[in-house]
Design a protein that fits this description.
Length: about 210
């Protein structure tokens, strides 16, 4: 199960495949797909990285562009696979937090922390989450990332409505505001991380920030 740290086969842990290996066997389709996604994620996290083209991606992988299209119908489909990974990873963490017996503020703090740790561990994917890597790409990619954050906010809003101890549930408007503030904070931290060239970490002074908000 994915977690907030990059795994060995995570697209975020990718490094460019370098060095000519003329005797290397062609990898299985599934492995080649992962190599493509890993390399795309690695290229996205290069300082000053601009729009990644399929030509540049193919050159980094030392294959032809036609070879890329044997595994993905388009570059948009490659980005969709990265978004799939983001969704699976973050929502898996969210489900784990939901299953815990903990007060609402603690769940919310854990959820924000998990999201920001994931972005910090995966700089290339942080650019996708911030939308920076999706500029000039297909519009549906931006829409998918927007929907991802809408779903996340809905879960946080549900937790913000949970009663504390024997108290009644928080008012709906208050829950909406609290979830919205936490999401805005999280998005701001991810955007700052990307804009700073990954120098300003999303988890900087995070416990203190969450204490102020929660």
């Amino acid at each position: 199960m994915p977690n907030a740290e990059p795994s060995a086969d995570s697209p975020a842990n990718a490094s460019a495949t370098g060095g000519a290996m003329p005797t290397r066997k062609r990898p299985p389709p599934g492995e080649r797909r992962m190599q493509i996604l890993q390399t795309l994620a690695a290229m996205l996290q290069q300082p000053g990285a601009e729009r990644v083209t399929t030509a540049a991606l193919a050159a980094r992988l030392q294959v032809s562009e036609a070879a890329l299209y044997r595994h993905f119908a388009s570059k948009a489909q490659m980005f969709e696979a990265l978004i799939d990974f983001i969704e699976h990873s973050v929502f898996s963490l969210t489900r784990q937090i939901a299953d815990r017996e903990a007060p609402a503020p603690e769940k919310l703090a854990q959820a924000v922390s998990a999201l920001l740790r994931f972005a910090e561990a995966n700089p290339g994917l942080a650019r996708v989450m911030a939308g920076d890597a999706l500029v000039n790409e297909h519009e549906r990619l931006q829409q998918r990332m927007a929907l991802f954050f809408d779903k996340l906010e809905a879960q946080w809003r549900q937790w913000a409505r949970e009663p504390l101890n024997a108290d009644v549930a928080a008012p709906t408007v208050e829950a909406q505001v609290r979830a919205g503030v936490l999401l805005a904070f999280s998005l701001g931290r991810i955007h700052r991380f990307v804009r700073s060239g990954f120098r300003r970490l999303p988890t900087e002074a995070l416990p203190e920030s969450l204490h102020v908000m929660l």
